[in-house]
Amino acid sequence: MVLGMTEQALFILASLAKGELHGYGVARDVEELSDGRVRLTAGTLYGALNRLCDEGLVAPAGERLVQGRRRRYYRMTVAGEAAFAAEVERVRRTAVALGGRVPA
Predict the structure, then answer these.
(1) Nearest CA to 61 among 27, 24, 23, 28?
(2) Neighbours of 58 (CB within 10 A)
(3) In which element (H, E) is residue 66 found?
């Protein structure tokens, strides 16, 4: 299981938690979900997707023709779901632990 994953990877997994998406759809969803804090260029996005595929957390889900363009879709694997849940819990525990130290 991958713990302490990058913010980009965490947001990509969060995007794919909704279901299969093509690369551009992932990038748009990540930007929206992060309130614009995380913006994925094509190189960054596909590099991260390739790493997540190599780690077994994401898998290709085929190609489809959408408005005349070929789109490659991705899905989260069972291992990806487990890693995502574990990382969200780790981040939650970290926020709780640190939240008590924020000056009033």
Answers:
(1) 23
(2) 24
(3) strand 58-66
Total residues found in the chain within this entry: 104
The sheet carrying 58-66 orders its strands as: 21-22, 69-76, 58-66
SS3 62: strand
The token duo for 33 is: 């979900």
Task: Please give the model's pTM, rounded to 2 decimal places.
Answer: 0.88
Q: How far apart are CA 100 and CA 104, in angstroms?
A: 10
Nearest to 28 by CA among 19, 18, 38, 13: 38
Closest CA to 25 of 51, 61, 57: 61
**Could you read off the pLDDT tens digit of each residue along the chain, which spans 104 residues?**
445 689 999 999 999 999 999 999 999 999 999 999 999 999 999 999 999 999 999 999 988 888 888 889 999 999 999 999 999 999 999 899 999 888 87
Sign of the dihedral defined by the CA atoms of residues 42, 40, 48, 69, in that order: negative
Which residue is it, tokens 């779901």? 81
